[in-house]
Amino acid sequence: MKDRSTKADITAAVLLDEDTLMLFGAIDQPLPADSVVMLDGMIDGRFRGGCWTDGAGERWFLGAIRVAGLAHMRPSRIEIEDAQGKHLLLPRLSNVRTNPAHLVAALREVQPQSLDTALDVAVTLLSGPAMGEGEAGEGHRRTRLLSGLAQEASRPDGFAEVLGRFRDGALMVQGWSHGFPAGASHVLPPVLVEAEEVRPHAIAAAPFHRPDLPDDAAGLLTVLEGPVAAPDTIRRIHFRAADGWRHLAIFEHRQLLADGVASAHARDMLGQLQGDAPRRGIAAAIAARYNGVETVSQIQAPVRMGLDMAVRVPGAGLFVCGWLLDPTQAVRAVTVKGGGMTARLDADWSRLARKDVSDAFAHDPLFAGRLLPGNDGHGFTAFAREPAGIAADAEFHLELTLADGIAFLPLPCQPPTGDSLRRMLGAVNPDSPSIDRVVSTHLGPMLRTAASAKAAPSSVLHPMGRVLKTPRVSVILPVCDGREDVDLNIARMANDPDFAEAEILVVAGAGTHERLAGMVRQAAGFYRLAVGFVAAPTAADPFEAMAASLPHARADRVLLLSPSVLPTERGWLSALERAIRKPNAVGSAALAPVMVSPTLLYEDHSVRFAGIVAVEGSGGAVTYERRFAGYPRDWLKDQEASAVDAASADCALLPRELLMRAMADGGRYLGLEPKGLDLCLRVRAAGGSCLWLPKVRLVAVDEQSRNARDPRLERMSALVDDWSFAERWKASIAA
Amino acid sequence: MSRRRLPLLPATQAARPAPRQPARPLVAARPPRVLLIAHNHPSLHPGGTEIFAHELFGGLKAAGAECLFLACTNDIHRAPRPGTGFQTLGRSADEVLLWAGHFDHFHQSQIDLHGLVPDLSNLLRAFRPDIVHVHHTLLLGVEMLFLIRRVCPDAKIVYTLHDYYPICANDGQMVTPPRGEGGTRTLCTKASPDACHRCFPDRPADQFLLREKHIKAMFGLVDRFLAPSRFLRDRYVAWGLDPARIEVMANSRPSVEPAPSRDLAPGAARDAFAYFGNLNPFKGVTVALDAVARMVRQGLSPSLAVHGGSLYQTPEFRQRLADGFEAARGLATAHGPYRPQEMPALMAAADWVVMPSIWWENAPLVIQEAFQHRRPVIVSGIGGMAEAVRDGVDGLHVRPNDPADLARVMTRALTEPGLWERLSANIPAVRPTEEAASLHLALYGELLSPAPSALIQGNRTR
């Protein structure tokens, strides 16, 4: 393609930021308003330009070039593609400045009569996403350029007297002027709000009669699209009148409306506004503002919406569950907004059948004849990711975009408590085709963030029974269910000389029976054991209970012992201790500190635990499998003590210091299974190793029925846990 | 079907086809590794199929085969456990339970493939069976045949069909649900989408076709089907199984000392009848009770001991049962469920066993048990019962679901001099488990041999 060399003269060139160059000069050919630019024939970026012709017939231009990293380039060829695809070659740049005052001064000197036009062009060039945001703050060179130009071009005309912010950051301004334009936002040029920064804002505006003003002036009401600078920081509002730029000064005794009042104030003014189109423009601008009130029920179209629950995990995201009855497909978009965040919900939500909603509206005249029988997919569950930096107490609402308006629904979000998160999990459909993505982009991060914000459970120690100076081992017996006593467990230990010098920490987590402490005290006295009753009422599961009790353990070695584990014979603790003392004698290669577990059997003598091993499948995928689980115990006959990839947290002996290191950064899971495995993997990551002793056999029974829990919740928990586990360990757990 | 149909088998032992030579040396020098799969374990649910499969398991082990018995279970007997589908029974090292509670009865299909497949695959890989002998795919799901074939491509799959579940969606009864004015059930001879839709109006006809296609597709992976009766084999051949792939192999029983016959006072009649089995609408217990009531009205006083429970039956049926006992009060006694080891004592108190089932039956365990104790059996002259009991030879046939006919035959039984002795003397020996094990081993060997010999049909009958 042939290039056209231009006859151009670049009067000033100013770098507005690292990526944006502003040019002012004269040129013999028209420049495209929006096009691409090539530097030295290779690097490309955006070009926006604007031209005007002065009284002498000379064509002047302002142009903005945006190329990433432009400040560090010395381009020798600048080519701009025009509307016909031809390349216009600009002359080589020299004397590129960084102070916008230079450009303003050049304009004032060379084109003083065209400053209004230049400001028009500059506002157009610098708005819109193609030109980026520029630097922040008052020193911002764009701000200095615009405010410099405004300073030169804009004349005072009237005052802003009442300012009020809408919830979404838009601004209502009431005042007076001679030349403020009137109309809806799509017909009016933007105004420039001069505060710490100078930013353009689309407006709707309408005049109203004020008897106190001369005939050529009028009251004005305008709504500036947000987010607008805080009203008390605004210095001037520049607007484009028919004959040039003017500005409203801020009245000395201006009134700043309280939050949320702007909407009502503007609505009150509607009746006085002059001109149909401007009044409609203002009315539309107010209607598009959320003012904390539900407006869905006022929609004329057959559209209704209800919320069942909304949960927000600050810093991670939102979950919304409810229904949208929209039989005529009037709703174009459902968006969640608040705290500066905007996220479309309906692009990727899951719909579910809500026959109750169909039934409830079956006799509503608005919906009569519009509900198709059997078409009940009104329910939805939706997620939105939250960018960082949104205030923890931000308020959110839903916005329904319709063909002819917008309606709002406040979104009261529950905080991420254990209950609300469980309800959220229970509401999600595990059979949704997008469930993997929902888990990895929403549920996983939300639950992880919620868990990391949770405080570590506190605990109080109540010594009971005998006092031991230096216990040989600290037994941690976590109780997190409603059992009334742990008599059987304590009796078993009392009956085994191995436990004579052991301190037994019975940890009472959440939901334990109120009589548990009394029963433990009685048993400790009767059996003359050294028992520490650790009250940890916020510990939700055995692992949190263990963590809560660890500071109270005094022995160098800790025995983790689930209350479901029932020793069948004496001497098993000594066997574990021997293995810990001489780990290499029983199959561990190195002299690493060791976590050792015995074999655990079910009451039918099938294998419950015989070591967990990592199995590498096809394609290198690693799965952790419980060996021999469910098989008859005789299958272990020929097995020898061996190193395994994970022991069992239900019954394991290990050095206290190793356990503390492993628990320092607890894994965050919903189920116990992955927590146990995760603990063992952390033990190994902390330099320990895991051993399994096949010959030492204990019985472990589940007294609680596992069917009591909601199967859907269970499946969802497992999906989230699988994701968390894979994130942390790059492996999966066998089903 | 005629109730006077002649027994399918010739009456005398000598006339039967020459049996397969038992325990021919196997091709492999080592004994075969056999995985036996049943839909339940007899110690949890002592049904005929479970009992026979488990006894065969014992027989095969005694004959030197390496066996593993895998029995399915569900919520009725066991709760599922985390991390594994397997459980065990007592201390047995070669019996494993598989929790398979997510089962689609209509399609005979396993719903929880995600949970079951890894466990079953691991078991198959660990045990490496030469033969997988399936006794039912209830609970397990017919898809597991596919898994077996995939994980153990060289293993042979043998499938003993113990009932008509694959053919009939009405719990394999091949009897219609109660229909018409009297709410009567009628015998069904052939399943078809239309006929099945009439039984289950809520299900469209094409679902029955899909069901059949699915089951047949999975059955295509089986190397050899075994039918405990010729009647059952004929039903499956009529349904579409390749006749070359299904042979008759009679069930067996562990040997047992026959219970002594009842001592009679001089001139006393053989009037002690006994019923064994579940009390459900298909077994005809109400027909028997009705027959006794009719005999009472004719001035006779037979006794009927009813052994069995009515677990899981509808209130309506229980009421009918109660009414039946009431009408035969004084003569019919409900003794409740019994354990297998009580059988000799219960038999000792009976002269006749009645089995008036109103469905086809296959190879009823009760007939074998009665024969072991040399008790003639009065049966409905249909299906597997008519095949196992020869009318006028080792038992008597009655018209099914006809209390008057049953009353007539029972009256003949207690009044005709010498009848009991003659029928009792003709009762053939029941195949002992050892023999069945050896016949099965011979079959396994045949299947495992590189050049399988042609199947000789019907050569493993009793």
TrEMBL record, chain A:
InterPro entries, sorted: Nucleotide-diphossugar_trans
Source domain of life: Bacteria
Gene3D superfamilies, per the entry: Spore Coat Polysaccharide Biosynthesis Protein SpsA, Chain A
Name the record gives this protein: Glycosyltransferase 2-like domain-containing protein
Species: Azospirillum palustre
